[in-house]
Amino acid sequence: MLERISRVKNLTVHLGMLYPLVLVLGLLQVSAVHAQPSHRMLGDACAGCHGTRGHSSNPMPIIAGLPEVYLKQTLRDYKSGKRPSTIMGRVTRGYDDDQIDALAAFFASQVWISPKQEELDSKMIKRGKRIHRDGCSTCHKDNGRYQDDLVPRLAGQWRDYLEIVLEEYWLRERTMPHLFMVIAVSELEEDDLKALANFYASQR
Amino acid sequence: MHTLNRRKFLTLLGSTAAGGLLGLPAISHGAYRARVIVVGGGYGGATAAKYLRLADPRIEVILIEKEKKFISCALSNEVIAGERDLASLSFGYEPLTAFYGINVIHDEVTGIDANKRLVQTRSGQQHGYDRLIVAPGVSFRWDAIEGYDEAAAQLLPHAWKAGEQTLLLQQQLKDMPDGGKVYITAPPNPFKCPPGPYERAALIAHYLTLQGKTRSKIIILDSKDRFDKQALFEQGWEQHYPGMISWVPAAEDGKVLRVDAQKRTLNTEFEVHKADVINVIPPQKAGYIAEQAGLTDGSGWCPVNQQTFESERRENVHVIGDACVAGSMPKAGYAANSQAKVCAAAISALIDGAKPPVPSYVNTCYSIIAPNHGISVTSVYTFKDGEIIDVEGAGGVSPLNASAWERRMEATYARSWFDNITADIFG
Predict the structure, then answer these.
(1) In chain B, which among 14-43 make CB contacts under 8 A with chain A?
(2) N or C: which end of chain A has fewer CB within 10 A?
């Protein structure tokens, strides 16, 4: 500690010679840069609903380790209302674009962990696997483990959450983003939604 | 639940790496660079203890809490409604010790010496600290309603601290005949869980309906003229329990001045109400120890620096949760959890001799009107000119005319909130 303080003091002495310049730069900085909370400060505040560092409990979606670009876009869509929500629209309007990017970076930098899920239905898993193979695997490759800027990981996500989102697309009560998903899901029967949710939840 | 799983291991490992490996010599506490004591293991205190260890494992953390188990008040209205049991709301402190190295001492703090930086406990122990976090929650103003003291609460439960009191109210509702009158007295602001009394009215109505006691009435006598999420509650009451719940604001003689526990009567200025079941939610102030340690002001609550939660009255003592005055944040579990994290980050920085970080805070309060009908209020907060304020244009309540699907989802998310926040605190 002492060593650190003395180093800082020395630095001040040297910088003292540049004092007028430092002062000007300092003023510029105060006026130009709005002090932002750290990524962790922002992200930790979400844990009340999304679990510690995005490792959530059922059925809140696991967001730890999802792709950064996907998270950024999803948060922006919530904020603009393009993606409907019960509460996320109200929450995301509390953050500016830099803060939304910081939140996306924070959760993307966490490690995805597939939780153990109880009461998955083995018949439904089989049926879901067939639907996945025939209809979903072009985008959701590798049994839903694949992810990129547009495609979130599905493998190991909470079954109940998968069912909720599929239902949102299927019911069309609300206008969902990703037209491709709206079309794809419209061809399914109600039980297919359960089957898919069981299948992806069963993957690790 | 009590095994060190991969997630917890990674969380702790990550925090160690991020906590910095400066290799600074220990100052005064063996291997640790500082000791922080947390008084009270509820939503605020237990979160602060855990997040201090996540922020910097070189900080020794002692959590002093009287009870072996924490019982959540949030969702305890579902116990009153017969929808869940107390065990589902109870949490032990073992994981905090096993996974995060927190020294949990089950004892009661009876005195704080801020000059000597010492706490005294009921068992006669003394513990020194570098910084102290006081998170005692609320205590009741037993002198506020004539006739309502701790003995009267055995007949007219407050059920505002979950446990025996919750079960007592449940039992009284179970025993009440059809056509009975249930009175709830709602306290003035500020108090713990602003939507709580109104959620309780709804879930009592739900319970009585299930019991076939549909001729019963629930009357809320309020010390206020408006309340949290009012339009949403009134809409939900009417939708699910038409004619069963009535609300009497202060302006219409709603303020209760006196109760008689034996006769089960309530007196307002102009009326005497005869009840079958009375739930008195008393006016509140900061928890006893905060007052005893000189942390409160004339309001009965604790003024703090709202960036660090350090007391304005005692140096090196921080107050979080219901007991403190936190700008526009309500007294709620999520708010306490959020404040605890800001406080932990500030203390970690202060111990390093650094400036406290720029804070960010969140609160969400879910309420359940019926098993498939949830509503919420949420806010994101920032720190400006010395005060916590709502970020403009954000937050607010659920829409008034939402679909049944959305109401069902909010009830689902309410219970999910509970599972997530309690895992964030105790898991």
Answers:
(1) 14, 18, 24-25, 27
(2) C
* B337 chain-A contacts, CB cut-off 8 A: 47-48
Give the ipTM of the model, two decimals please.
0.91
Residue A64 is part of a domain; what is its CATH number? 1.10.760.10
**Per-residue pLDDT tens over the stretch B331-365:** 999 999 999 999 999 999 999 999 999 999 999 99
- How many domains are there within chain A? 3
Instruction: For chain B, positions 39-68, list CB contacts with chain A under 8 A.
Output: 51
Residue B284: phi and psi, rounded to 5, are -130, 165
B11 interfaces chain A, CB cutoff of 8 Å: yes
The residue whose two tokens read 């009158």 is: B181
Q: Give tens-digit pLDDT for B204-243.
A: 999 999 999 999 999 999 999 999 999 999 999 999 999 9
Domain B6-139+285-356 has CATH 3.40.50.1370: no
Q: Which CATH number applies to B150-282: 3.20.20.80, 3.60.150.10, 3.30.930.10, 3.50.50.60?
A: 3.50.50.60
pTM above 0.95, yes or no: no
Give residue A179's domain range.
Answer: 122-202
| Cβ burial, residue A98 (10 Å; 0-12/13-18/19+) | exposed
Pairwise CB contact (< 8 Å): B378 & A87: yes
Q: Where are the domains of chain B?
A: 6-139+285-356, 150-282
Residues of A in contact with B402 (CB under 8 A): 86
DSSP string covering B194-242: TTHHHHHHHHHHHHHHHTT-TT-EEEEEESSS--TTHHHHHHHHHHHST
Q: Is-contact B76 B418, C-beta < 8 A?
A: no
